[in-house]
């Protein structure tokens, strides 16, 4: 990848990584570098950064093969916990959702549901599915980004976590009545994941939301 | 305006007078079970009955010996252990009735944040509440604290207490683990579980207990338990700061007394240019002052309950409480 030879412009500072914009010939790429955390024990820090970088790259590749819209990997440098991927032009769902008409928002969530259904039926869970990790392109297609917490898992529990997190991010960041969006999400999800996966994932999502403190006996 | 606050949600019975935002008195007695044993709710409630009279009378005596006359009586209505909550509620009802003063129910978790915010300067922070009852990241939105991330199983306080019990360390478990961790240095391979903005601790606790029983040095287990459990929380906090775009972090609750955890959370906040406020250690654990502080704020915003309608809510969720006094002016 030769990170030292290309020009990198700071693009975004995430919780665990810095993103830079760069170019490879005519291609715009994003370089993601996992940074060391001062608060964390050094050996734990090395282990977490290395494991996540390698797993992120390989899972994004698999997600793409499953038909999910994700950036394409253009290079990896495990020694520096860095990789690069194609740039997706668009807006974060968290920034554009509030300004959307109810109809557009519903349409977006149906597409998003279909996307997540594809991912899940491919045996992959995202692990951090919030509106901050969804890029909406200019023609309204959702791309999934940030697979740092993603895993290969056939467990309905893990699929439920994805759906639970997404619903909670609608409520806590946008404070919308989540139900029409959740309904659209479920419609799209069923189309690509099928009835069996749909039922087990959503049942788990409901169970997980009741696992928080002081829900148990209601 | 002078508020008498009564706390009795778990192991501590406390009473405190707060007048116009100033803590005048804060008297607390804590039930301590023997090593290896948890809090028995009935035994804790019996302890509360025994100490309630002296705690309240000390609390309504000012430092210079004058008797104080509260305008309102606030009590922790939940969440907590039912038998313990009922003692505080009964004492509060009796006082409200005898003195003919309004009675104000307070949410114990909201109160942890209220005292932390009153003593710090935070306006509209990301709140990190870590105790035996809660482990959650919260942001205030449209009148309520909203849970942005939390533990999916047991709290950080549970982890430390239950480990302390298994290892037969003297209670409170949190302090024993912290002391022993300073002497440990080998990081054991224990499970690290962050799910999005949530954490899950039960697997870590089981693995730590197993490591201990298989002969690992208790100091190393304590060290690893702290490093991994706190790193998990710090990571979830870091994600929450970035996603909620808050520029203030407030840390409250009993486990906030742990210096290693404070250090880690402060480092996370600094790293994202967020102001960091931690509740002073003497007010981090359960205390009457938090209830008096929260009760004063709630009363100003119309909260009160008649003696007949007053009750305790052992499983009162934090995001069910209206908190119109946040963001602070």
Largest sheet entry of chain B: 5 strands, mixed
CATH fold-level name of the largest domain in chain A: Transferase(Phosphotransferase), domain 1
How would you sum up the major sheet of chain A? 5 strands, antiparallel
CATH superfamily name of the largest domain in chain B? ATPase, nucleotide binding domain
> Helical stretch count of chain A?
5
Principal-axes geometry of chain A comes out as: globular
Name the CATH class of the largest domain in chain A.
Answer: Mainly Alpha
CATH topology of the largest domain in chain B: Nucleotidyltransferase, domain 5
The total strand number of chain A stands at 10
Along the chain, the helix and strand elements of chain A come as EEEHEEEHHEEEEHH
Brief synopsis:
By secondary structure, chain A is an alpha+beta fold. Chain A is built from 5 helices and 10 strands; from the N terminus they run E-E-E-H-E-E-E-H-H-E-E-E-E-H-H.
How would you characterize the overall build of this protein?
- The complex is a heterodimer of chains A (218) and B (329).
- With 218 residues, chain A is an alpha+beta fold.
- Chain A has 2 domains: 9-86, Phosphorylase Kinase, domain 1 (2-Layer Sandwich), CATH 3.30.200.20; 90-209, Transferase(Phosphotransferase) domain 1 (Transferase(Phosphotransferase), domain 1).
- Chain A is built from 5 helices and 10 strands.
- Chain A has helices at 42-65, 93-96, 102-121, 156-174, 179-209, and strands spanning 9-13, 17-24, 27-34, 73-77, 82-86, 90-92, 124-125, 134-137, 142-144, 151-152.
- In chain A, strands 1-2-3-5-4 form a 5-stranded antiparallel β-sheet, with helices on one face. A 3-stranded antiparallel β-sheet of chain A has the order 6-8-9. Chain A has a two-stranded antiparallel sheet with strand order 7-10.
- In chain A, helix 4 crosses helix 5 (179-209).
- The mean pLDDT of chain A is 90.
- Chain B is an alpha/beta fold and 329 residues long.
- Chain B folds into 2 domains: 2-112 and 285-320, 2-Layer Sandwich (Nucleotidyltransferase, domain 5); 124-278, ATPase, nucleotide binding domain (Nucleotidyltransferase, domain 5, 2-Layer Sandwich), CATH 3.30.420.40.
- Helices cover 41% and strands 20% of the residues of chain B.
- Chain B has helices at 41-59, 82-99, 108-119, 156-166, 173-181, 202-213, 218-244, 259-271, 288-300, and strands spanning 2-7, 12-19, 22-30, 72-78, 103-107, 126-130, 135-141, 144-150, 194-195, 198-199, 248-252, 275-278.
- The longest helix of chain B is centred in the last third of the chain and has 27 residues, at 218-244.
